[in-house]
Amino acid sequence: MDLLRGKVAAITGAGGGIGRAHALLFASHGARVVVNDVGGTRDGSGGGHAMADHVVQEIQEAGGTAVADHGDVSEPEGAEGMVRRAIDSFGKLDILVNNAGILRDKSLRKMTVEQWDLVVKVHLRGTFLCTQLAAAHMAERDEGGRIINTTSVSGLMGNFGQANYSAAKAGIYGFTMTSAIELRKHRITVNALAPVALTRMTEDLPMMAAMPDAPDHLSPAFVSPAALFLASELGADITGAIVAVEGKRMYVYRMVQTAAVLPHDPDGWSAVEISERWGEISGGK
Q: In whole angstroms, what is the distance from residue 70 CA to residue 85 CA?
């Protein structure tokens, strides 16, 4: 079944890991794919064409259609260039997957402003820039569209040593929710994946080191069917969802609101009463 036959998809950070898995699967289902990757290291330094070009070659050798884009999508000209690459090469852009990211882990007290800014820039600003440009094109065409962002368990639940990454990924969660609301009228769905997978970004993280079977059970290939589902007509009615994929396990993250509690004093809450009734307020006993 070719779920994306006739569609054009742009995938950022598609030179390796999860992005590469998305690109290969999308192409196998008939999509024409723009493979974007700056070709740098996982901390964002360096660059080159080899990674994106290699994925394009893999797709072409398998009988698919793809072109490479090497722009830095955290910069306006890079994001614009990628969207333009899709339009110039294939005439349109139907699907955007925001997947590009870097890591510069450091505990909060030791983190530099540069480490903070670079990670937030690539993850959050890059997602904003690409989404804004792709959504404008999709809305103008008036044929709907699919946007899939990439958040993280670190952003949704927190993780030691990743204040910058967690903040960026939490921002992507909020950005996804708002974009889904605003773009619904244009029949553009906006969802996000929260993947747990073994890639060069995660290979030496403590959680991966503690899982000797991670290469078999946390392959990036397990994540991509969820992206395909959200990108296809099968997911046309789903927007504003945060889909977590952890190996073969899949679940949905939702914000939880406890039942509202009123103060005993008609004039309002006091700090003392909040303390006394915290269990009730927080949903406990």
A: 10
**Binned average pLDDT, 10 residues per bin, the chain of 285 residues:** 95 96 98 95 76 98 98 98 98 98 94 96 98 98 98 93 96 98 98 80 51 62 97 98 94 94 97 97 84
Q: What CA–CA distances, in Å, run from 228 to 86, 135, 223, 253?
A: 18, 19, 9, 19
Distance separating alpha carbons of residues 197 and 63, to the nearest angstrom: 27
Taking residue 196's Cβ as centre, other Cβ atoms within 10 Å add up to: 21
For domain 8-254, the CATH class is alpha beta
Query: Which residue is catalytic, options 165, 173, 251, 253?
Result: 165
Measured CA to CA, the distance from residue 45 to residue 42 in angstroms comes to 7
What residues does each domain of the chain span? 8-254, 257-285
The Cα 223–Cα 147 span in angstroms is 16
Identify which of 181, 185, 151 has the alpha carbon closest to the alpha carbon of residue 168: 151
Active site residue 165: yes
Beta carbons of 56 and 24 less than 8 angstroms apart: no
Tell me if the pTM is above 0.85: yes
| CA–CA separation, 103 and 115 (whole Å) | 9
